[in-house]
Structure to design on (900 residues):
């Protein structure tokens, strides 16, 4: 089994992870950058885009070792992990670990949400960038957040027919948001260019999907705005209600997680010694926050807090914007009434809402119905159920991602001596 | 074979996948968005596009339960859904196979 | 011990499968029952275990207890909800060598004399019954009436029956002290009852310091779905030695196919564990033993691993019976890995104690003041 050792292990090669790896490596630290995807860049960059390239080049120049298509499977002892890589199981040891596992889309269940043809918003873009041909397809985009606009613009540019965008936030909130952008001139430019790219695409604020219809695949979607309903025929529904931090690994390592985000100090330290967290993982804030936080964590992990301190004002500004976004795109309470009796909430185990909601806690729901115990281990249904019920949805058991028995057998006793 | 296509098998049928495709995308281009059946028999397809939801599960080169959205296509790759397979290829079973990708 | 007489009111502390079964039996007798659960019903060992209902013959008392209880499960299965997934999967006890095969034959004789159905499988029959077992195993013992049940919905169903009969279930309520005929809760409520049943599993010594029950940690893992890989619960014969013995650490082959096609892989026992974290070393030992007997397991994906704590006693039998000095107190604890299997017989013993009706069991074997709880039996 291969042994990898470094000063710093960075998990996740999105903006936060790349920034952390680059800053630490440029200070002379040995850095391993680990990511599940075949190419670095995370979800937002998805490979060497114009924004990503400078960071990728700097990482290469600074000697960052990248392990792609690789994932942590199990912590062995402090700073040592069992990982699966394309070359087989590997042991990775590092003095400091930076978690930059990013965010994932929040999927809220409604009747028909599990039909083939219903994708996440970022998901559809990711699939399209992986060759999913959407030219000429009729796409309805729904859910919440600035991602809806960014992805819709991109879909249009690449030849799809975006029928409309249904944003659940109220028109008044969106208007207030547009006015508040004055504080961030670069955002104004972004917003204007999006507006231009989306000319002719209806942006229906204060509306949300109540039903996806079709037999073996999606045919139409019914939208509601609290007063009326409207059916939209479409080939594809791209639907996501914002992002939530991907905390599974952090939980498995024992890091404190509060309101679904990993708790960190100013320099990215989690509640577990020598484990840092940066980016969407500490709170959804967009890639500017991720880039700054990643750099701060990388510098702090490389024991250069003095350099990290210089970036704190930039981080504060990025967080302020993130705070505004969270306010504007807060999820409305009507979304809690979307699932009906029969709506499947846990897709891995096909557990319906009626079976889940009758419980007193997530733990009770899990042991009674096995929701959250399937292959995704509650990553999809957990945040949805948390939103629907207010329950604390925590706990992560090893392995961190599904691993073969032979992978789990590959570590040895001496690897666990702390 | 054009340079930007990769020859693979999808449920026993030859298919030319785009070079940059993941196995999930290739399967959807060949078969449509319904790639699998849920535990209670509902049609399903990829949802999250990033390896979290496990709805893109396919048997890849004989290894079951692979998250196909994380696997780039390679020439000769054999993708199988959970539909009844054509008579020529046996029902996918766990066999002594190479280490599955993470 | 003279029969206790059916009380008007009873409190059952602990809503695991043992407590729920006791409460269910009391409610059937017309007793007004209050069940007090500190956390989530079925949330302790009940949720962590494999759900295996099996006859075990490590002692005559255990054989009687488990076989009687299994017959009660067979009867109850007719009314259990679908979520309980009760099904007769059968157990195959695997002999790894000829010595174990001989032990299997002796087991067959013991079981036959107790009226428990079993049959020997030779090498070929074993391979046919379970093609994924490694070749070269000399044979095994099939017990076709052993079953599998998913316990948490059974607990829920039992508690529902208790409520239907006018009983109450308090969850998130922790008991801090038991005075004569009064239970004191952490929120200062004092609940009176004529009878108090202690079914708190590993937490029993919290209320009764010195009660000879020790936590015994176990590791389990569950795989993704591989329908048809395995058909029966498979246990190696050495399991009984390990469960009955008291080494600090032991691992035995114990595999269960779920109706979903997932494989539950166990099992391990540790007295030396300090917390509930999954220990990579122990998990590895469990998985290694599993692949030794079923090599194909190496290629299966593990979705999750977890631990649980069994309530273990020195003589491997549960404590079922009244407190020797306090007739208002009844213990139902110390079931080690057989809490699910013997929960119904435990409840039947409780009922018999109250009504004076006989059962096929001799309660003396499970008495709270038996000497073997404190001192091991001399070796034969």
């Amino acid at each position: 089994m291969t042994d990898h050792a470094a000063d710093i292990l960075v998990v996740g090669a999105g903006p936060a992870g790349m920034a952390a790896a680059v800053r630490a490596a440029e200070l002379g630290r040995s850095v391993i950058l680990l990511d599940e995807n075949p190419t670095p860049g995370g979800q937002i960059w998805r490979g060497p885009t114009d924004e990503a390239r400078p960071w990728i080049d700097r990482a290469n120049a600074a000697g960052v070792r990248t392990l792609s298509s690789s994932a942590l499977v199990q912590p062995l002892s402090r700073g040592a992990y069992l990982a699966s890589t394309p070359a087989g199981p590997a042991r990775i040891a590092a003095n400091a670990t930076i978690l930059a596992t990013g965010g994932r889309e929040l999927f809220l269940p409604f009747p028909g949400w599990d039909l083939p043809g219903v994708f996440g918003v970022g998901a559809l873009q990711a699939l399209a960038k992986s060759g999913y041909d959407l030219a000429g397809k009729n796409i309805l985009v729904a859910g919440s957040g600035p991602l809806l606009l960014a992805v819709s613009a991109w879909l249009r540019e690449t030849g799809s027919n975006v029928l409309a965008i249904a944003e659940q936030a109220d028109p008044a909130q969106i208007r207030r948001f547009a006015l508040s952008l004055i504080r961030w001139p670069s955002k104004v430019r972004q917003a204007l260019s999006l507006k231009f790219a989306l000319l002719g695409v209806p942006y229906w604020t204060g509306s949300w999907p109540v039903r996806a219809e079709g037999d073996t695949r999606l045919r139409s979607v019914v939208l509601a705005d609290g007063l009326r309903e409207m059916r939209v025929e479409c080939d594809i529904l791209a639907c996501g209600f914002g992002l939530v931090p991907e905390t599974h690994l952090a939980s498995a390592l024992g890091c404190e997680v509060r309101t679904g985000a990993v708790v960190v100090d100013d320099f990215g330290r989690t509640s577990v010694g020598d484990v840092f967290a940066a980016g969407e993982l500490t709170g959804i804030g967009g890639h500017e926050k991720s880039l700054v936080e990643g750099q701060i964590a990388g510098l702090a992990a490389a024991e250069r807090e003095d350099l990290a301190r210089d970036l704190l004002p930039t981080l504060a500004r990025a967080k302020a914007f993130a705070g505004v976004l969270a306010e504007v795109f807060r999820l409305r309470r009507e979304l809690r009434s979307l699932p009906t009796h029969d709506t499947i909430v846990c897709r891995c185990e096909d557990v319906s809402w009626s079976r889940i909601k009758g419980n007193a806690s997530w733990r009770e729901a899990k042991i009674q119905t096995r929701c959250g115990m399937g292959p995704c281990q509650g990553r999809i249904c957990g945040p949805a159920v948390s939103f629907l019920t207010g329950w604390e949805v925590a706990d992560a058991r090893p392995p961190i991602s599904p691993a073969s028995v032979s992978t789990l057998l590959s570590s040895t006793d001496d690897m666990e001596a702390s | 074979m054009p340079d930007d296509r990769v020859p693979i098998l999808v449920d026993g049928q030859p298919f030319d996948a785009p070079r940059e495709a993941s196995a999930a995308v290739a399967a959807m281009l060949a078969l449509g968005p319904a790639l699998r059946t849920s535990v209670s028999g509902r049609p399903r397809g990829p949802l999250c596009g990033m390896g979290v939801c496990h709805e893109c599960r396919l048997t890849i080169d004989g290894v079951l339960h692979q998250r196909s959205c994380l696997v780039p296509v390679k020439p000769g790759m054999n993708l199988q859904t959970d539909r009844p397979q054509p008579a020529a290829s046996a029902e996918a079973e766990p066999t002594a196979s190479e280490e599955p990708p993470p | 011990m003279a029969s206790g007489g059916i009380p008007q009111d009873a409190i059952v502390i602990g809503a695991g499968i043992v407590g729920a079964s006791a409460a269910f039996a009391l409610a059937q007798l017309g007793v007004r029952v209050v069940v007090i659960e500190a956390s989530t019903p079925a949330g302790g060992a009940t949720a962590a275990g494999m759900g295996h209902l099996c006859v075990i013959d490590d002692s005559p008392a255990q054989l009687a207890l488990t076989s009687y209880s299994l017959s009660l499960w067979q009867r109850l299965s007719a009314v259990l909800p679908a979520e309980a997934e009760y099904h007769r999967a059968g157990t195959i006890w695997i002999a790894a060598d000829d010595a174990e095969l001989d032990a299997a034959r002796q087991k067959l004789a013991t079981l036959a004399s107790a009226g428990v159905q079993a049959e020997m499988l030779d090498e070929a029959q074993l391979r046919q019954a379970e093609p994924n077992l490694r070749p070269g195993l000399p044979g095994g013992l099939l017990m076709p009436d052993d079953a599998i049940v998913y316990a948490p919905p059974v607990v829920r169903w039992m508690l529902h029956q208790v409520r239907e009969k006018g009983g109450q279930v308090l969850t998130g309520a922790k008991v801090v002290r038991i005075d004569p005929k009064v239970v004191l809760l952490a929120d200062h409520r004092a609940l009176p009852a004529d009878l108090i049943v202690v079914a708190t599993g590993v937490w029993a010594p919290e209320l009764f310091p010195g009660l000879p029950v020790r936590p015994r940690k176990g590791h389990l893992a569950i795989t993704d779905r591989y329908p048809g890989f395995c058909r029966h619960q498979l246990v190696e014969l050495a399991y009984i030695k390990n469960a009955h013995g008291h080494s600090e650490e032991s691992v035995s082959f114990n595999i269960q196919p779920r109706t979903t096609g997932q494989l539950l892989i166990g099992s391990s026992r540790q007295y030396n564990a300090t917390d509930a974290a999954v220990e990579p070393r122990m998990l590895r030992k469990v998985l290694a033993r599993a692949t030794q007997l079923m090599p194909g397991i190496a290629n299966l994906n593990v979705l999750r691993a977890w631990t649980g704590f069994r309530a273990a006693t020195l003589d491997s039998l549960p404590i079922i019976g009244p407190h020797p000095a306090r007739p208002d107190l009844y213990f139902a604890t110390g079931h080690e890995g057989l809490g699910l299997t013997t929960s119904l017989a435990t409840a039947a013993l409780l009922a018999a104690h109250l009504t004076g009706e006989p059962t096929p069991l001799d309660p003396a074997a499970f008495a709270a003041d038996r000497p073997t709880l404190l001192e091991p039996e001399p070796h034969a």
In short: Chain A is about 35% helix and 25% strand. The radius of gyration of chain A is 21 Å. Chain A has a mean pLDDT of 94.
